[in-house]
Structures are given as structure tokens and as C-alpha cells.
Design a protein that fits this description.
It is built from 6 helices and 9 strands. It is of the alpha/beta class and 232 residues long. The longest helix has 17 residues. It starts with a strand and ends in an 8-residue tail after the last strand.
Amino acid sequence: MKLGVLFSGGKDSCLAMHKAMQKNEVVCLISMISLNPESYMFHVPNIHLVEMQAKAIGIPLVKVKTAGEKEKELEDLKKAIECVKKIYGITGLVTGAVCSEYQASRIQKICDDLGLQCINPLWQMNQIELLNELVIIGFNVIISGVFAYPLDEKWLGKQINPATIRELKELQEKMKINPAGEGGEIETTVLDAPFFKQKIKIIHAETEYKNHAGVYLIKQAELVDKSATKSE
């Protein structure tokens, strides 16, 4: 099956892609560039890195801008997927949906309308297990956005590793947060994954934080050989 992937450059779309690639051919990536920082549907922090990530992966990328207006952004998404279907001949669409009924139901409807199979490899996956799997199979993921108390500025730029996962699990038990950010608590950026041919090295980044929300903005980065020393 030829697949397109809804690609944000975050952990969920990348892990879903990794799983889909085991039995199918991924022929293109689709990234929605929302002009609304509070988009209902689409990932925003460091979305500008998708071009570099696509180059690292070696798969064509289709970028589509959207104003990010609720429901209207779905029309933009549908047009983008329809275009990709014509150009690349995809028969299925991969999403990183984990437990958001809002996102999953709307993407499913678009796929139904366009005659595409909607593939959600992470659907209803335990969030701690999801985070652990990222580490086990060799993803390098950083937290690029925090949007809920008690996640503060110190979390920005942190790598998802066993220690981070333990902290998130503790916060899940004490504060009832979603450890993988399914309640909008965190956003992530993937710097390396098993299917990356090169990895991303951060040259310069800046942190913006206020009112219990903040982002880790990657201002400058480069692709480096996989044998190079891991970036932090």
C-alpha cells in the first residue's frame, strides 16, 4: 500500500510513520503549516523544521499553509490530501492520533470522502508505553512546548529519556496530566529516528515562557552524519 503521512515533525507522527513503514511504502509527507499558534488540529512549535526532517528522512514533503481557523482548517487539509492522492497515488493516510476523538474523527471523514484508508498505528496506546518505545527504538525527541502547570520552563528542550519519562509518570499520578501530552500539555520535536538517514543538530535555540506556557524555538540547525556525536 502506498501511504502518505500527516507529518508534524513531532514524536507521534514520527512513531506512527515508523510503524507504518514496517509493512507499507511511505511515498510522501504532508505538513500543515498553521498561522494560528493555537490551532485546534495542527502542531505548531518548530513546524519550520519539517523541511529539514523530510530531507533527513529522504521522502518528499508537501507543505500547505492554513489560517488555522476551527473547521476551516479541515477544508485546507482535505484539499492537501486530495492533491497528494492525485500526485503520488496514495491509497492510505497515516496519522499520529493517540486518543483525540476530535482529530481522529475528522481525519477519518476526510479519508472516507476521498476513498483512502485511515491508518492510526498509535490509537489508544498507553502513553507511558509510547514514550518508552521511543527511547527503546532509538528516537531522539525533545520537548519543544509546554502548555500546562506544573510543566515549567525547565522542561523546554529536555530530551525524552528514561529519567524524563519517570518524572512525567510521577506528574501523571500526582497531577493527572497526560504524560505524552494528549491533553495538549506538551509538544515535541524529533531530531533523529531509526528511519532518518541523517540527524538534526541544534546550533542555536531560544526559550520563550510566560503564564505557564512556553516554547523552545530552534533558530538554527543543521543535518549531520548519523555517526556524529549526538546533539543534546
